[in-house]
Structure formats: C-alpha cells, structure tokens
Amino acid sequence: MTGPDSPLPAEDDAAYRRRLLFAVMLSVMGFGSLTTIVTVALGTLATELGSTRTTLGWAVTGVLLTMAVATPLGGKLGDIRGHRKMFIVGSIASVVTTAACAFAWDATSLLVFRVLFGLSGALVQPAGMALLMRAYGPQRRATAMGWFQFASTGAPAIGLVIGGPLIDVLGWRTLFFVFAATSLAALVVAVAVVRESPPGERLPLDVLGSVSLGLGILFVLLGVGTAARNGITDPLGPIQFAAAAAAIGTFVVAERRAAYPLLRLEYFGRRRFTAPMLANSLTQFAYMGGFVVTPLLLGDVYGYAVSAVAVIMAPRPGAFAAMSPLGGALASRIGERTPMMLAGCCMIASMFSFAVGSAPGRVAFVIGGLLLSGISAGIGQPAYAAMVADSVDEADVGVANGMNQTMLFVGIVSGIQVMLVVLGDDPSQQRFVGTYLFGATVAAAGLVAAVIAGARRPLPTRSAAATGGSSS
Predict the structure, then answer these.
(1) Are 212 and 245 in contact (CB under 8 A)?
(2) Handedness of CA 329, 334, 337, 339 (dihedral sign)
(3) Quick check: helix, strand or coil at residue 423?
(4) Core-most of 74, 257, 448, 469, by most CB within 10 Å?
(5) 262, 255 in Cβ contact below 8 A?
(6) 221 CB burial (10 A radius; 0-12, 13-18, 19+)
(7) What is the C-alpha separation between 355 and 376, in angstroms, rounded?
(8) Of the candidates 208, 204, 297, the residue with the CA atom closest to the CA atom of residue 249
(9) What is the DSSP annotation of 369-410?
C-alpha cells in the first residue's frame, strides 16, 4: 500500500505535482484577485455602505496587515500540525469569510470579515508553499515557486477583468459570491488532491515575540495614519507611536531571552539583510499606494465606469507576472543590487508618468505608469528576496523570508493609507499630481536603500547550482 510519504514511481510523482500545483494556484489566485478588485470598487463600496473611501481602504489594508502579522505563525502551525491540515483549514475559512463579505451590512462588518479572510490567507499561503517545495524537491523548487509567484501576481489581472464588469452589472455583493464559489472549488480540489507531508521538528512557538512584533507593526501603521490625517498635534498619534515602541522593545527583549527566537537580532546589523528589506518596503509603498489612487483618478478626473477602470488597471499586475521570471534570471546572472536599482528607477518613473497623466486626455501616461510599476515589482521582488535569504544562515532562510514579507506588507499597508490620506476625499487634479510626486519621493528613498545594499553576492558554481547547494 502506498502511503503519503512512501516512494512513488516517477510518473506518479509528476502527475501529483501537476495536480498539487493546480490546487495551490487555484487557492492563491482567489486571494490576489479579491485584493485588487476591492481596490477599484472603493468608491462604490463607500457609497452603498455609507462610509468614506479612506475608511474602506482598510478592506484592502486590513487583509494585508493581518497576513503580515499572522503568516509566520500560520507557517509554524503547518510545521507542527501538518501542512495539508492547515491548507484545508485555511481553505475552509476562505470560503466562509468570502461569502460573509457578501452579507456585510455596513463598513465595520465588511472590515471585520475582510480581516478574518486575511487570517485564512495566513494559513493557506505558507502551507501551500511548503507542500509545493516538498513535492518538487530541492532541484525543482525554483520552478514551483515561479509558478506560485505567477499565480500570485497574475491573479489580480484576472480579478480586474472579471470583477469590474460584475460590479457594474450585478453589484459588488455578487463579486464575493462568485469568488466564494471559486474558493469552494479550490477546497474540493485540495481535499481530493493534496497529500500530507510529515511535520518538522516540534520547536515551541515564540508566541511573545510574534505577538509583540505584530503589535509593534500595527501601532506604527496606526500612528502613521493618525499623523497623516490629523497632523502631529493630535495626541493620539504620539500615544500610538509610544505603544509601538513598547511593543518593539518587548520583541527585542523576548528575542534575546527566547531559546528558539522568531528572528535572531544580529541579522539586523547586516547591511545585506536590512537594506533590501527597506528598499522593498519603500518601493511597495509607492507601488500599492499608486495602485489605490489611480482608479480614483480614472473615475474622478476621467469619468470612467468601474468596468473600464478595471480593464485599464489590468496591465500592471500582468506586467508584474510577466517580468518576475526575468527578475529572477537577472538576479542569478548579475547579482541582486542592479535589478533592485532598476526596480527603484522604474517605480520613480511610474510615479512621474502618473503625475503627467493626471490631466484629462493623457490616459496613455496613466497606462505607461501602470506598466512601469508592474515592471518594477517584477524585476525587484526576486532580487530583494534573494539578497535577504543570502544574508542569513541556511537554517534561518525561512524566517528571513517571512521578515521580508512582513516589511513588504508594511510598505503596502502604509502606502495605501498614507497616499489615500494625502489625496483626500475631494481630490482635485492638483492633489493627484502632488500625491504621485509624494510617491516618487518615497520610491527614491527605496532606490537609495538599494544602492547601499552592497555589491553582488558570490554566485554558486554550476555544479552547486545544479544540485541545489550554494558556494561557500
């Protein structure tokens, strides 16, 4: 009898890999699609739920922030309890929370359901990656992760093309019902296809470190939002920043004392660890902030319907998906810093292109900005991740990637919130221009971080690369 961990014929292995890849990609695509389509529907949601676009922006940022905080714990639960189990549990939660969003009766209920949706993603994504890595083995993991990234970045384009017309014709609630059905199909496939993988070493969870880091990130972002909305004179902002400092201080103390810390603090003193994470976060600030502002530009200044906005926005995630393989190839051939710098330059150029396109009749510049920002993310993401992973010990690559993802989410969440606040609820053409120039300034800071990150890493020899090893 063939068990889930027993050797299989090569043909059976190949067939299982194809089925598993399909199941994981189907699940991942639901998360990416819903994130971006909610972005272009912020105006519609705000009108029907009696709220503001700034408030409803948390329907996007709440998901991302939740995943930033909870994904490391979700991955650890998979290590302890089994990745298949966590993948199935997360998939069930995805179906339930997506359907619940369709029944939201006000802004608060929608935001709560979206945060719970983010928790389901914190289980599905790390478990899905772990299942793929085991099935493909060390020599083919890059292939599996390439398809995983393609699904993650290509899904938003699909969501925009499908979701925009659905909102215009049938309303936004239908959108959530459709994606709940998609998630249900992914769940059925997963139950039928996915085999269990054995758990790893049963190390204890660093609960205090994880919670304190999450609270620190949360209070930093709340403080930034308060300061952006109300100015530095609002006493709530300093209180939130003080809470952030206390939480991060607790994290530092916890990591120093923990037998199995979430992340070794010494890594933060390494330039090749901190600089690419900072560059990634700042570039993502402009990337996602611009992505939220641009649908408002197309609706308020150009007067386009949601369906038209969705189609115009689709090239950006499409460019991201298409350029990701090139970004990985560049980082492997010439080192990570040059692609990181190129990504920073493209992001700055995209913000200027958006600024020029803020006047009616210049939609070509808007499309150009979308393409440039997608190219920036596609070229930069593999390089950021590779440099961070190369800067730590092999045993800590997973948590280093997790920290890089956390910084990415911090940039995304803060970019959405701050750039929406900079734009305001009654924006003029001049406010759009100023908002994009602000994004260009942040992206320029990311370029500086990429420059100081350091020279290219030593590349592995051909034999080491072929066997999944690395040079000494």
Answers:
(1) no
(2) negative
(3) helix
(4) 74
(5) yes
(6) buried
(7) 17
(8) 208
(9) HHHHHHHHHHHHHHHHHHHHHHTS-GGGHHHHHHHHHHHHHH
Per residue in 208-236, pLDDT (tens digit) is 887 888 788 778 877 877 776 676 677 88
| C-alpha span between 374 and 378 (Å, rounded) | 6
Give tens-digit pLDDT for 387-397.
776 776 754 55
Q: How far is CA 384 from the centre of its chain?
A: 13
Digit-coded pLDDT (tens) for 82-105: 778 888 999 999 899 989 988 988
Tokens of residue 361, six digits: 């009749």
Give the orientation angle of helix 271-300 with respect to helix 10-40, to 10 degrees: 50
**Dist. CA 235–CA 447, nearest whole Å:** 33
Residue 349 CB neighbours (<10 A): 18
Residues 252 and 246: their CA atoms lie apart, in Å, by: 10
Cα angle 372, 373, 379; round to 5: 85
**Which two three-digit tokens encode residue 135?**
């099935």
Residue type, 91: S
Are 150 and 326 in contact, with CB atoms under 8 Å apart? no
Query: Distance (Å, rounded) from C-alpha 276 to C-alpha 245?
Result: 23
Amino acid identity, position 369: G
User: Nearest CA to 221 among 437, 448, 229?
Assistant: 229
Residue 47 neighbours by CB distance under 10 Å: 12
pLDDT at 41 over 80: no
Contact, 357 vs 365, CB < 8 A? Answer: yes
Closest CA to 228 of 421, 67, 82: 421
What is the torsion angle, in degrees rounded to the nearest 10, for the CA atoms of residue 95, residue 417, residue 310 and residue 149? -60
Q: How far apart are the C-alpha atoms of 403 and 206, rounded to whole Å?
A: 14
Please state, in angstroms and rounded to a whole number, the distance separating the CA atoms of residues 177 and 100.
Answer: 9
pTM value > 0.85: no
